[in-house]
């Protein structure tokens, strides 16, 4: 993987709780909070300059801007939710550009697994453990924070193990 193992290791303790929070709140409320998105971006802005050369750090921030613009367009077209777009933008700087294929494969697998697990769980006794979650009764809508947060978390874990 192109990501630095050291960078992934340093980001993990800060990013993992945010990813879990995003997955949880999206399951419970069908929304990704602005506080979580700002916290994710802030972690990169504060820690990133110490973990990578400044030109690389700058290009990683460009990825945030690019993904934010793309997310706004996709949200306006009704393709994705606003919280999903903002989270994807805040997560973008953590991804090394050379790992884009790995990330896309990881996201696809994670999305399929999360969707299947969510749909199965809502028809089992697990639903009684969280009876008030909005995501159980949203029809075809799916809490993408479960997959987006999971993908970023898995990417950083894999980066910590297999990164440069």
TrEMBL record:
A GO term from the CC aspect: membrane
Gene3D superfamilies found in the cross-reference section: 1.20.120.1220
One Pfam family per UniProt: Peptidase_A24
GO molecular function annotations of the record: aspartic-type endopeptidase activity
Limits of the Prepilin type IV endopeptidase peptidase domain: 15-115
InterPro entries to which the protein is assigned, alphabetical: Prepilin_IV_endopep_pep (IPR000045)
Transmembrane stretches, start-end: 7-24, 36-57, 64-82, 102-121, 142-162
Keywords assigned: Membrane, Transmembrane, Transmembrane helix
Protein name, as recorded: Prepilin peptidase CpaA
Species the sequence originates in: Cribrihabitans marinus
Organism classification: Bacteria, Pseudomonadati, Pseudomonadota, Alphaproteobacteria, Rhodobacterales
């Amino acid at each position: 993987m192109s990501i630095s193992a050291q960078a992934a290791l340093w980001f993990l303790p800060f990013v993992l709780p945010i990813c879990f929070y995003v997955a949880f709140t999206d399951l419970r409320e069908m929304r990704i909070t602005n506080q979580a998105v700002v916290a994710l971006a802030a972690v990169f802005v504060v820690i990133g300059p110490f973990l990578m050369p400044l030109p690389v750090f700058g290009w990683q921030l460009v990825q945030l801007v690019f993904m934010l613009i793309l997310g706004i367009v996709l949200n306006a077209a009704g393709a994705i939710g606003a919280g999903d777009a903002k989270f994807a933008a805040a997560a973008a700087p953590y991804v090394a550009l050379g790992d884009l294929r790995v990330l896309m494969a990881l996201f696809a697998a994670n999305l399929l697994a999360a969707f299947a697990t969510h749909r199965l769980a809502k028809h089992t006794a697990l639903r009684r453990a969280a009876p008030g979650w909005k995501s159980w009764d949203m029809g075809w809508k799916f809490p993408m924070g479960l997959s987006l947060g999971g993908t970023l978390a898995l990417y950083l874990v894999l980066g910590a193990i297999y990164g440069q």
